Amino acid sequence: AAVPPAAPPVAGGAGTEALPPPPTRATPVPPEEIAAPEGSIDLLFMMDATLSMRKNWAQVTCQVQEAILRRPMEGEARVGFILYRDFDNQWLTRQRYMSWDHEGALKWFMGETAKGANAYAGSASDKALTVAAMLNLRSDYRPHLMVFADAPPNDLSVAVHRARLLHVFERAVVDGVYVDRDRETRGFMDDIARAGGGISRALRSGGTPFAR
């Protein structure tokens, strides 16, 4: 039997034949997206890093270290940090993205401190919660966010709204840890914890951070 003639070539840009061939190998999955061990969680710490927090920085560090050490023993955890200041403190947020490398994340945090201007005009915690909403928090297990602050945000309504969005759409729990200096800060923490499905509590005193 006669061999049928070959089909004429397709003009460039016309039909599926003009598309590039599919990759021969699957694109490797980023480590952050690989299925996490059962029982694992995301731990994201957000903290006021303005000068007024300096006297409490050792206590904050102790509680961060304790929270990391108390991660689920049967699984793992990704750890991340968002530090925030304000316009008068030169930058609004500085972050260390979610990572399985707890040692590296903690080492990064231990290199930071509370400093800058003492604006006493609020804080950028509303901006920090906005940044948290843009991170690739896992939804397979409920992320846990802890906010440390001694001042309310510049925009309380935005902070509360972001905490609610994190709780509803990212399945996160948002806790507020406040430095008990005034009712306004405690009220702010109560509000974001309520919106974020978490709890609010005062910063515990005492303790000495272990060196990294």
- Please give the oligomerization state of what you see: single chain
Major β-sheet strand ordering:
3-2-1-4-5-6
Order of helices and strands: EHEEHHEHEHE
Total beta strands: 6
The fraction of residues in strands falls at 15-25%
Number of helices: 5
Q: Could you give a short account of the major beta sheet?
A: 6 strands, mixed
Classify the helix fraction into a percent range: 25-40%
Low-confidence runs (pLDDT<50, min 5 residues)?
Answer: 12-17, 22-30
Radius of gyration: 23 Å
Shape category: globular
Mean pLDDT: 80
Protein structure class: alpha/beta
Tell me the distance between the termini: 80 Å
In words, what does this structure look like?
The protein is an alpha/beta fold. It is built from five helices and six strands; from the N terminus they run βαββααβαβαβ. The chain has helices at 57-69, 102-110, 125-134, 156-169, 183-195, and strands at 41-48, 77-84, 93-99, 144-149, 173-178, 197-202. The chain has a six-stranded mixed beta sheet, sandwiched between helices. Strand 2 (77-84) and strand 3 form a beta hairpin. Helix 3 (125-134) packs parallel to helix 4 (156-169) and helix 4 runs parallel beside helix 5 (183-195).
